[in-house]
C-alpha cells in the first residue's frame, strides 16, 4: 500500500455507499482531494446535518426532519386516500410520475419472517389504528411486485377490508422482480393509472 | 419536491462525486439514512480528516499527510530512477502491476496550454532542478497515451536529455486514448516491462 493512511481511510469509508467498489472509491477519493476539496467539505457537512436532523414522519414514516412531513402536513392532499409504499424513495418516484393527490404510508421494508421482519417492524399496528379511526376511505397498494411485496400487499389489504376500506393495487405494468424506485416514469405512470381492485 | 431540505441537500452534495448522477445520489442518500447512519458519520469524519490532513509530498507531489511521502522517504527505493506520472492514482496502479523499485514524480496534470496548464503548474522547474543536481540517472515516462500526455512526455524527455539522463517510455500496450488508472494489471505490467528508449 502506497497510500497515506487518511487517503486509505477515505477510500474505505466510501465503500459504505451502494454500488461503490474499490476502484470507484479510489476514484472518488482522488477526485475530491485533487480537484474538489470544497465539495468534500460540503459533503461532510451535508452527511452530518442529515444524520443529525433527519428522523421519520410520525404519520407516514418517511424520512423527515420535522415531526410531520410536508406531504402529511399539507391540507392540499386528500387525507382519505393512502398509498402504501415500501421505501421513502418510492414516494419521490410516484410523485414524479403521477398526479396522485392523496397521502402515503411508508412500510420501510416488506414482510419477511425469515429476516425477522413482521407487522410490527413495518408499523402495521399504527396503520391499523389509523384504519380503525375511519379517516381513510381508500388505499392504493404500491409495494414492489416481488414475492415479499405481494405478501405484504395481501396482509395490508386484509387489514383494510376489515375496516371497510376500498383497496386497489398498482397495475403489473411494473416488471416483475423489479424495483419500484428505478422503473421509468412512463411505465410507472401507466401502472399507477391502471390500478385494479385487489382480490 | 417532496424531500425534506436536509435530504435534498445531501443528494445535491453527493453530486460532487465523479460518475454520480441524480439517481445514484438519491440512492446513496436513502441507503445511508435508512440503513447505515454509522457509515455516513464515518464517511463525514474521513472526508474532514482527509481534507484537513492530506497535502502533497514535497518531493514527488503525490497526496501525502506527511511532508515527504512513504515512497520518497523509503531507503529501499532507488532514488536514481524516477517514474513520471500524471496522477497520484497512477502510482497505485503501477505499484499493483509492476515490481518497480524506483521513485515517482507526480505532474498532477499534463501540459495543456489552452487550459492554462504550463510547465510551472506541473512542477517541472522543481523536477529540472532535481535533474541538474545529478541524483537522477534514469526516468521512465508513464504519462497517459493521449495527445497532451505525449506532449508532456516529450517536454520532460527534452529536459532530461539536457541533464544527460537516460529516458524511457512505457510501451504502447496501453490502449491509445485510455486512462492509465483504469487499465487492467496485465496490460499495464506488459507495457511497463516492454518500455523502450524514448526518441
TrEMBL record, chains A, B:
Residues 80-175 form the Toprim domain. GO terms for biological process: DNA recombination; DNA repair. The keyword Metal-binding applies. It comes from the Bacteria. PANTHER family: RECOMBINATION PROTEIN RECR. The gene is recR. It comes from Spiribacter salinus. One of its GO terms (molecular function) is DNA binding. Keywords: DNA damage, DNA recombination, DNA repair, Metal-binding, Zinc, Zinc-finger. SMART domains: TOPRIM (SM00493). InterPro entries: DNA_Rcmb_RecR, Rcmb_RecR, Rcmb_RecR_Znf, TOPRIM_dom, TOPRIM_RecR. This is Recombination protein RecR. Belongs to the RecR family. It holds the Pfam family RecR_HhH. CDD domains: TOPRIM_recR (cd01025). May play a role in DNA repair. It seems to be involved in an RecBC-independent recombinational process of DNA repair. It may act with RecF and RecO. A zinc finger (C4-type) spans 57-72. The keyword Zinc applies.
Amino acid at each position: 500500500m502506497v497510500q497515506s493512511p487518511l487517503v486509505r481511510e477515505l477510500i474505505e469509508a466510501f465503500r459504505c455507499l451502494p454500488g461503490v467498489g474499490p476502484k470507484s472509491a479510489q476514484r472518488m477519493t482522488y477526485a475530491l482531494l485533487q480537484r474538489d476539496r470544497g465539495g468534500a467539505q460540503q459533503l461532510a457537512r451535508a452527511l452530518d446535518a442529515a444524520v443529525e436532523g433527519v428522523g421519520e414522519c410520525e404519520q407516514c414514516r418517511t424520512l423527515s426532519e420535522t415531526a410531520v412531513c410536508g406531504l402529511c402536513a399539507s391540507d392540499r392532499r386528500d387525507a382519505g386516500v393512502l398509498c402504501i409504499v415500501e421505501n421513502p424513495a418510492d414516494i419521490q418516484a410516484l410523485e414524479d410520475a403521477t398526479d396522485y393527490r392523496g397521502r402515503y404510508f411508508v412500510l420501510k421494508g416488506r414482510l419477511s419472517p425469515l429476516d425477522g421482519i413482521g407487522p410490527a417492524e413495518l408499523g402495521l399496528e399504527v396503520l391499523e389504528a389509523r384504519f380503525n379511526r375511519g379517516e381513510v376511505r381508500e388505499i392504493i397498494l404500491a409495494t414492489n411486485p416481488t414475492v415479499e411485496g405481494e405478501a405484504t400487499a395481501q396482509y395490508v389489504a386484509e387489514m383494510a377490508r376489515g375496516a371497510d376500506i376500498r383497496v386497489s393495487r398498482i397495475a403489473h405494468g411494473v416488471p416483475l422482480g423489479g424495483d419500484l424506485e428505478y422503473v421509468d416514469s412512463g411505465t410507472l405512470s401507466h401502472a399507477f393509472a391502471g390500478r385494479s381492485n385487489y382480490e
